[in-house]
């Protein structure tokens, strides 16, 4: 059994009502899902509106590497650490996607003594939110083809249907299909395909919605197809938004669980961090801010993608004002950024560390450019050396002007994140945050892309494909120019080339294609190849997953 | 607002713990899903094993017509009626499928004062069981294509992959597709398609399994493809059964809800009644038998399909011994069987009634052929006349030798089904049941089909397509000859022609195709066109479904 699973199994979970009570949530506000998970009642949520907000802390990271950074683990550990030092703290996380669980071994609920529980339930169906999103998405798809089948009164051009279907499964065979085969009774044959559910625009709408009414309005705005005259056709014109909203009526309520140390965590929503914005729902974050004096939340991938979108899309649109950010790094990942192969990471290598730490330095600068004060968390691994940690601390202090704190929450739980928690409190209480997005709403769409590329990715320029440039103009002409842009770029590099680690400069960001997400409220700029339906590996984790005679799920970690 | 919805809204639901307590279920055995739904804990279920069984009553019906018979309504009403006269009764029902909810207006939770609640939740996602089945099914599909992609060690012939994909959605565009398009990275292009989730063999396995271990064994036996040498490839060979079982670990626990009158109801599983056996899970029925002195359950479609499969597949395999059966009919549906058009049903027509009642008479004979005593329930409609009811009662008594009881549970709840309840108790206590399947395990597969066709459908013969006949021989040679057969035939007629109402004779049943369901444990015989993925109508119910400002789902009824 893995260490993470052993720790999870050894933990004693409190009844969810006790977790809620400790967070000041009355038991009547709970809609339980089993004994250790509950949704929060809509009426209760509405009643929180006039309470003051707590402090908002974002956990982000350097560019991800195969070495692992531990962003979720640090988010959980920091939340536990804040509670340990007497700050009433609520954690807000994304829900894991079911598909990847069966691909590459590993869940998405933290690790060691910094986990959210019950991990099996959270990693599998949880409260069914993603299934509800899948259903709502595919209902709209069925209504599109059904409309065409029954006479196509709206004049949809079947070559220009842009609403694909989704499954929460890693299934490469469904990436590109032809549907409607088999004769006239099955409709009109056309090209189609499936994305994984986290890539659904319904997921993005769900995560940015203020409430159920706003969700319905967003869903109605989704563009599903174009006519031969290239006029958009929306979900609203198909009368689909009401039924989609009905399918999401329970899903929209945030899910309450606990960490191993008993901290309350709201886990809700989980949009892709490439073609979507990659953070948990606005509803969960706002609820957490009403319940906690501190809220610790995370964003997907590294800070170039995750934090940028958290700030420029989620915070801008939801009116959130982050008070501090934590940038997570590991000795191992910094050495990889410095050119060390994965097999050699266990050996001390101060030179490589010095070469790779430029990646961290740039992320620190970037986050500060949004007016958010930063602390660095170095997530401790057993192979790290004292000299390596000392070097990071020195460079951070002397060259980046930021404090780097060693964290041992994986091994020690809340105690291991206590120092980080104290630094975060000092940052928040220092009142130095003056959050602002990196670009203004009024800038042109291409100007917004250029702004992110040059100021965050440090590119010299962008190269927008002619069709993409024309589409951006068309979006502006159609009244979408005020939307923020959502960059879909490799997570492994500041550039669009996944092999360029460290802090590359002099590159150009190619904008291959742009897509309008009118419901979510952003324009997606696709820079390079972006996979929206993963495949399974040669030896899928699924082959080792089973239920033991004692009724326990084995093989999830 | 519809009458059904108004009644449902006016009902005061008891907390699910109170419903459980009344059924003798301790609160510790509950895994709540919201306030009014709970799953029953696996440990508690295991502990019931040595209790004696209650009486088992099947509710079935004449062949369905557009007039409506009210089988679910009568099942609920009878359960309430039995509780009203002091018999501790548990109702066991199928879970509704999500797809059809958005097609033709109407849920599947009964009507009037004979409903199971909360109807919105039951009709939409409920406890996620069907989503779990969808995920398990599609995981297996992804693993099949992934196996081929990574070298195809088992030698799967991609032209002979028989495992399609599923969605719980009415979506005709997905009936026939080509997948794996778009280049080498997406796999090998091949023909594929989607069925609705209720048609999944995973659903049939789920509903026939004794427990989680038996479910895993069944899943492992599923044949997903054949090699070029026509050797079967199973889910077990793909190491898929363990992960599929993990996905179904919670779903397998039966769901407890309540009727408007407060009777406990277990709603669990819902296989198609054409290519599968059409009744709720064996686990739910067995649990109900341990909890109630009486259990009222239903089977899909009319008695020619539903009751026959309930007896020959479910009862045979699970060792259940039904004590009585109720055959539901309405004045309107009998008149339709006698040739009256739907628009003319409100007018008294004794002649048509006399012509159409032969359908009922034959179902009565058929059910008795299984050794199960019968009572007829005439589900009262407001347009019925006294003379019509008298005629039915007379013919039933004088010509069919069976009692016909007028029921008013739709309007009056338990009180309206009290007389039916007393008749059912008398039948059960009479001890005249001596259940036996209509054919023996040892009969050849073709002999079993012939037996059902001649004894139940009253056909002169069957016409088995040459390929189907060869396949049946091959199934026998491969050791599957002992399995029961599952007939996939139109539900509208005893014959394979949906237009032949009443009690046709002299017909021949065509067996177009046969399929092995090795996991479920039956051989499907397809007689005529069987649709396994419905489409949406021109004006889908989805267009009228929405959430009101008060947070209530409108348009589901």
UniProtKB/TrEMBL annotation, chains A, B:
Coiled coil: none
EC number: 6.3.4.3
Family that this chain belongs to: Belongs to the formate--tetrahydrofolate ligase family.
Pfam entry (one): FTHFS
NCBIfam families: PRK13505.1
InterPro entries: Formate_THF_ligase (IPR000559), Formate_THF_ligase_CS (IPR020628), P-loop_NTPase (IPR027417)
Enzymatic reactions: (6S)-5,6,7,8-tetrahydrofolate + formate + ATP = (6R)-10-formyltetrahydrofolate + ADP + phosphate
Protein's name according to its UniProt entry: Formate--tetrahydrofolate ligase
Binding, ATP: 65-72
BP terms from Gene Ontology: tetrahydrofolate interconversion
Keyword terms, alphabetized: ATP-binding, Ligase, Nucleotide-binding, One-carbon metabolism
One Gene Ontology MF term: ATP binding
Pathway: One-carbon metabolism; tetrahydrofolate interconversion
């Amino acid at each position: 059994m893995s260490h993470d699973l052993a720790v999870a199994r050894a933990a004693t979970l409190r009844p969810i009502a006790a977790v809620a009570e400790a967070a000041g949530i009355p038991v009547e506000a709970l809609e339980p899902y089993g004994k250790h998970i509950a949704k929060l009642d809509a009426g209760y949520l509405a009643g929180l509106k006039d309470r003051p907000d707590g402090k908002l802390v974002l956990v982000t990271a350097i560019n991800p590497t195969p070495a692992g950074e531990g962003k979720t683990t640090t988010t959980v550990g920091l939340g536990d650490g804040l509670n340990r030092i007497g700050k009433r703290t609520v954690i807000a996380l994304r829900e894991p996607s079911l598909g990847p669980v069966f691909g590459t071994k590993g869940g998405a609920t933290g690790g060691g003594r910094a986990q959210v529980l019950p991990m099996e339930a959270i990693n599998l169906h949880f409260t069914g939110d993603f299934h509800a999103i899948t259903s709502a998405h595919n209902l709209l798809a069925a209504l599109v083809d059904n409309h065409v089948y029954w006479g196509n009164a709206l004049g949809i051009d079947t070559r220009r249907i842009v609403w694909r279907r989704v499954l929460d499964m890693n299934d490469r065979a469904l990436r590109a299909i032809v549907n409607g085969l088999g004769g006239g009774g099955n409709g009109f044959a056309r090209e189609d395909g499936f994305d994984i559910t986290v890539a659904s625009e319904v997921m993005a709408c769900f995560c940015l919605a203020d409430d159920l009414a706003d969700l319905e309005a967003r869903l109605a705005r989704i563009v599903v197809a174009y006519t031969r005259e290239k006029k958009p056709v929306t979900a609203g014109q198909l009368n689909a938004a009401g039924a989609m909203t009905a399918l999401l009526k329970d899903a929209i309520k945030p899910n309450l669980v606990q960490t191993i140390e008993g901290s309350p965590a709201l886990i809700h929503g989980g949009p892709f961090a490439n073609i979507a914005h990659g953070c948990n729902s606005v509803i969960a974050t706002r609820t957490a801010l009403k319940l906690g004096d501190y809220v610790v939340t995370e964003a997907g991938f590294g800070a170039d993608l995750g934090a940028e979108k958290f700030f420029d899309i989620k915070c801008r649109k939801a009116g959130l004002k982050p008070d501090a950010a934590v940038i997570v790094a590991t000795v191992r990942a910094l050495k990889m950024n410095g050119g060390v192969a994965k097999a050699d990471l266990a050996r001390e290598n101060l030179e490589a560390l010095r070469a790779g730490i430029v990646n961290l330095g740039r992320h620190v600068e970037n986050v500060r450019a949004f007016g958010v004060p930063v602390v660095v968390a170095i997530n401790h691994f057993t192979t790290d050396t004292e000299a390596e940690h000392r070097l990071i601390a020195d460079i951070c202090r002397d060259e980046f002007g930021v404090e780097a704190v060693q964290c041992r929450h994986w091994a020690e739980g809340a105690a291991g994140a206590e120092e980080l928690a104290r630094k975060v409190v000092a940052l928040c209480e220092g009142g130095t945050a003056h959050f602002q997005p990196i670009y203004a709403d009024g800038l042109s769409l291409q100007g917004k892309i250029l702004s992110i590329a040059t100021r965050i990715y440090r590119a010299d320029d962008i190269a927008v494909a002619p069709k993409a440039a024309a589409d951006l103009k068309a979006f502006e002409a159609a009244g979408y120019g005020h939307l923020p842009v959502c960059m879909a770029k490799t997570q492994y590099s500041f550039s669009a080339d996944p092999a360029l680690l460290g802090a590359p400069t002099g590159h150009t960001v190619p904008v291959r294609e742009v897509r309008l997400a009118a419901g979510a409220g952003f324009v997606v700029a696709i820079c390079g190849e972006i996979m929206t339906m993963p495949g399974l590996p040669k030896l899928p984790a699924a082959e080792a997953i089973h239920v033991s005679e004692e009724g326990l799920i084995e093989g999830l970690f």
